Request: fold
Amino acid sequence: MEEKINVTLKVWRQTSPNEPGFFEIIEANDISTDASFLEMLDVVNERLLDIDREPIAFESDCREGICGTCGLMINGQAHGPEKATATCQLHMRTFKNGDNIIIEPWRADAFPIIKDLVVDRSPFDEIIESGGYISVNSGAAAEANQIPVPKEVADTAFDAAACIGCGACVAACPNSAAQLFTAAKIQHLNLLPQGQAERYNRAESMIEKMEEFFGTCTNHGECESACPKEISIDFIAWTNRDFIKSKLRNPKKANYK
Amino acid sequence: MQKVSAEQKIKTRKEKLKKTRFRIKLPWPLSIYQTYVGKKWVMALTGIGLLGFVLVHMIGNFHLYEGPTQTHEYAELLRDLGGHLVPRTLILWLLRIGLIAAFALHIHSAYSLSKRNVITNSQYRGGRKYVVANYASRTMRWTGPIIGLYLIYHLADLTWGHFNPDYVRGDPYHNVVASLSSIPVAALYIFANIALALHIFHGTWSIFQSLGINSPRFNPYRQALAGIFALVIFAGNISFPIFVQSGVIDDRGDSIFETQPPGNSES
Reply:
């Protein structure tokens, strides 16, 4: 049943990366409980435009929880209170009539705020880049079933590959560490037979790139609980093991750069 | 224009973050310690050593329940480790040097990792909710220094005898009873052990993650093991001030040196 609720938004407004930001209190009345959180912000923005005010800048793309573009700190929790849910999949029925909702952008030193709720997550791209890529034509992909992969391994690698790179792990981490993101990106390749050739190189270069931007893991587990894809911190442990193994291995045998 | 300025900002931040890292790459294996994951690894390995020490220290202290003579014999046993094959107290000193090194590395890695995390973290202006981070994990930065400061006091009190007018060198039973029979000292001892138990609880679990000891077979037991270990250390250690205060362990009015010459009791 659709209901209409009134909520009070406390939204972070910031005009540019170098301006100091502030909280603006906006009344959002008559919001359908069927609306998603981003649809609610759309409605609020339409109303702000109607009265000639600057709408709230926020990022979104697919709005079905698979692209990782959206991401807001809602009431002090990354992607809001719902478990395994991206901001776009969070619905207003999670909130009650008269609720106060605090909306903040991801905060980390490596994620500077571009405007309002939009942050620059390009350090993530640099981490992925440092894992290695090929820019020459290497022909068509080999037939997938040529290499046998045990079901359990494939499942576990897929759990890691589910990472959408939204940045909630960094946002939720009290140290702004990107361990869960980096571990997921490393392990979805390191677990598979196809990824073995560069396994240790990858772990080492991606971790070292990550350490240029982010904090360090203190094993709180906040990232795991904030992750919209429920990626486990087990991947962090395995990545730590790969990294240290890489450091202790014979560099010639480890295909060392 | 907005985009350019954000790129500029990230570049300056990158420079700033890079400045906090080492400029000279040290040779292997010291280069491992220059990475943060490597520091966590060192922290976990030294943590294992320190946990071992805490456990053995507590078990050794149970000799207090046997009485002054047995406690003294245990202390002498530690000095005579290695029998007559090695000079007296050599093994003990080697263990002590190892312990001091473990403490130094543990503290230095904790300091540099915390420093890094203070730089990279930005605070939420509207507050934040912790979902799974527990009290122990969030207070590691506080329980650590509390234990460190207490450790200095503990050594000054029972090893160097600075705070205790009744201190008798080489008579641990008498010194422990003389110190812990004072209520403030006993309270401080219990307070420090609360900090130690919290630190051990998160630390023990954290060791598994930092070293990558992770398997679905035993993952559920890791937190339980940490809890039990912390509880055992806590219960064992606070039993001493409690039993001294309640009179179960008392001085019995005689120093062991009245029946037994002190001999060569260097440290």
Q: What stands out?
A: Residues 7 and 44 of chain A are 11 Å apart (CA to CA).
